[in-house]
Write a structure and sequence with these properties.
Blueprint: H1 8-18, E1 28-34, H2 37-48, E2 52-62, E3 65-76, E4 79-84, H3 86-94, H4 99-117, E5 131-135, H5 143-154, E6 159-166, H6 169-176, E7 181-186, H7 206-215
């Protein structure tokens, strides 16, 4: 394999070097896709001296083939943004996957996003006019990143940059259509699972993610009562 990252923190430092033009920009913020993108984003934000926050995203996996996403959900300013790959969804239904199975997947992921929205700091912020650097640990299909892009656009972001240490060619191409820029350090011709490009790729807990978000310069929280989880979406 041509490129291997030691861990998410090391990858975030390397990603920051590619994003150096944004260092200390007063209008820029770094948002990590929870959970795996948060340690990458934390290292990136620290190196760039930028505030750190999070975007809550959940992949909608095909039952029996959970690593393949037919869509994704993202938490955006008190509501859930839903992004669906309609051609793929139609093929999935034609091949015998029942709509009620997909409904169960979506209901479960919506519940998980609402749970995390009540727990994670830096998820409800005013992004009006901001340059948002969206950071994940890898881009396989790009589904969750596209949902995150929709979420921050809905929150008023003026410029959106998607960034990751590694990604598939297809994911990068799909994101270029919806982002102002895409920064990906490694685009292998044959994409494997994201974790295969890291020497250490452990599962993060909620406590791990929350601690990282609390350790660095936080985004200003502006949630009113109408924006609390479960009241919209």
């Amino acid at each position: 394999m041509a490129t291997r990252f030691e861990d998410r923190t090391e990858a975030g430092g390397r990603l920051a070097a590619a994003l150096a033009t944004f260092r200390e920009r007063p209008d820029a913020v770094v948002l990590g896709l929870a959970r795996g993108g948060i340690p990458v984003a934390a290292a990136t934000a620290k190196a760039l001296s930028l505030p750190l926050g999070a975007v809550l995203v959940r992949k909608l996996g095909i039952p029996g083939y959970e690593e393949t996403a037919y869509g994704a959900l993202a938490w955006a300013h008190g509501r859930i943004v839903r992004l669906i790959n309609k051609p793929l969804l139609e093929r999935v239904l034609q091949h015998g996957v029942r709509q009620e199975w997909l409904d169960d997947v979506e209901n479960r992921e919506r519940t998980e996003i609402l749970r995390r929205a009540a727990l994670y700091p830096g998820t409800i912020t005013d992004l009006t006019g901001k340059t948002v650097l969206l950071v994940d640990d890898g881009l396989a299909t790009g589904a969750t990143m596209r949902a995150a892009v929709e979420a921050v656009r809905a929150d008023g972001a003026a410029t959106v940059v998607a960034a990751a240490p590694v990604g598939s060619v297809d994911a990068e191409a799909s994101l270029e259509r919806v982002c102002d820029a895409v920064v990906c350090l490694h685009l292998p011709g044959k994409f494997r699972a994201v974790g295969s490009f890291y020497r250490h790729f452990g599962q993060l807990t909620d406590d791990d993610a929350v601690n990282l978000l609390n350790q660095q310069q936080p985004l200003q929280h502006d949630a009113g009562p109408e924006q609390r989880p479960g009241l919209r979406g």
